[in-house]
């Protein structure tokens, strides 16, 4: 299945895009890979992240209204239950059923269903996989010996051969540290952390560490792309914390939003 995926149409499109970008810009391959990662992150991922921010902002601002309506519904169900002799189990069933209906109506009214906020993940992960496999194909000669030869001499500094793994582990370790920093920044946003959120944070911490030996085993071209992509992801995450940029993206102001996000972030990471 791996080879089938590596030879799939989306991966070939990614290969053509990378080769076209390098040919159009005339950049060395290491710079073309870094620029490609920045371009994809900025043109595709950043707008989706801003869209996600708008949805999450609307959802957060809905919570007081949902709480108020839930209290009113609980009173109505209690009165109705006494009139009809409902058991506690039946009353709870009617309460949950009607609360779900009310919440769904609010989501439709404000066009902010939580599932829409997952669009970023459904686009970002397949895109990352396709570009990674495209770089792997270029590195092993699956796209032709000419591109592989260009890759073998298209690196820089300590990773001059993009077809070989980074024996110094500088790229893999940098990738791991970058991803861990992203995880910690996301974790610092949550004031009240649920058990699931704690498990998710620890899972992504583990993934960040596991990715270090993985990045050390693959061609440097892939490790460089992963590092460049993570760097842009970190930059965009910091940018989306800016109140000014959030207003430019039409992200509604919320109760949890800070006027000094960067000062708060430094404080959270150093304590």
From TrEMBL:
<dbReference type="GO" id="GO:0032979">
    <property type="term" value="P:protein insertion into mitochondrial inner membrane from matrix"/>
</dbReference>
<feature type="transmembrane region" description="Helical">
    <location>
        <begin position="117"/>
        <end position="135"/>
    </location>
</feature>
<feature type="transmembrane region" description="Helical">
    <location>
        <begin position="29"/>
        <end position="50"/>
    </location>
</feature>
<dbReference type="InterPro" id="IPR028055">
    <property type="entry name" value="YidC/Oxa/ALB_C"/>
</dbReference>
<dbReference type="GO" id="GO:0032977">
    <property type="term" value="F:membrane insertase activity"/>
</dbReference>
<keyword id="KW-0472">Membrane</keyword>
<protein>
    <submittedName>
        <fullName>COX18 protein</fullName>
    </submittedName>
</protein>
<keyword id="KW-0812">Transmembrane</keyword>
<dbReference type="GO" id="GO:0033617">
    <property type="term" value="P:mitochondrial respiratory chain complex IV assembly"/>
</dbReference>
<feature type="transmembrane region" description="Helical">
    <location>
        <begin position="169"/>
        <end position="187"/>
    </location>
</feature>
<feature type="domain" description="Membrane insertase YidC/Oxa/ALB C-terminal">
    <location>
        <begin position="29"/>
        <end position="239"/>
    </location>
</feature>
<comment type="similarity">
    <text>Belongs to the OXA1/ALB3/YidC family.</text>
</comment>
<dbReference type="InterPro" id="IPR001708">
    <property type="entry name" value="YidC/ALB3/OXA1/COX18"/>
</dbReference>
<dbReference type="Pfam" id="PF02096">
    <property type="entry name" value="60KD_IMP"/>
</dbReference>
<keyword id="KW-1133">Transmembrane helix</keyword>
<dbReference type="GO" id="GO:0005743">
    <property type="term" value="C:mitochondrial inner membrane"/>
</dbReference>
């Amino acid at each position: 299945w791996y080879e089938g995926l590596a030879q799939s149409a989306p991966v070939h499109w990614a290969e053509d895009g990378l080769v076209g970008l390098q040919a159009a810009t005339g950049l060395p391959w290491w710079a073309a890979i870094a620029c490609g990662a920045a371009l994809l992150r900025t043109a595709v991922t950043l707008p989706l992240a801003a869209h996600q921010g708008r949805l999450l902002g609307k959802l957060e601002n809905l919570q007081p209204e949902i709480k108020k309506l839930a209290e009113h519904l609980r009173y109505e169900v209690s009165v109705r239950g006494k009139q009809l002799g409902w058991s506690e189990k039946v009353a709870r069933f009617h309460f949950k059923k009607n609360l779900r209906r009310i919440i769904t109506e609010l989501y439709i009214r404000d066009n902010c269903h939580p599932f829409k906020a997952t669009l970023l993940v459904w686009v970002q992960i397949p895109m990352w996989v396709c570009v990674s496999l495209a770089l792997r194909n270029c590195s092993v000669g699956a796209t032709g010996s000419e591109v592989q030869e260009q890759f073998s001499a298209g690196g820089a500094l300590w990773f001059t051969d993009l077809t070989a793994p980074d024996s110094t582990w500088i790229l893999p370790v940098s990738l791991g540290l970058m991803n861990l920093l992203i995880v910690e920044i996301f974790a610092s946003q949550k004031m009240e952390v649920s058990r699931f959120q704690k498990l998710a944070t620890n899972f992504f911490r583990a993934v960040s560490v596991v990715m270090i030996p993985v990045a050390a085993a693959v061609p440097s071209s892939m490790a460089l792309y992963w590092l460049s992509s993570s760097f842009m992801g970190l930059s965009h995450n910091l940018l989306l914390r800016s109140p000014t940029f959030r207003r430019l993206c039409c992200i509604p102001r919320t109760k949890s939003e800070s006027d000094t996000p960067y000062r708060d972030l430094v404080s959270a990471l150093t304590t």
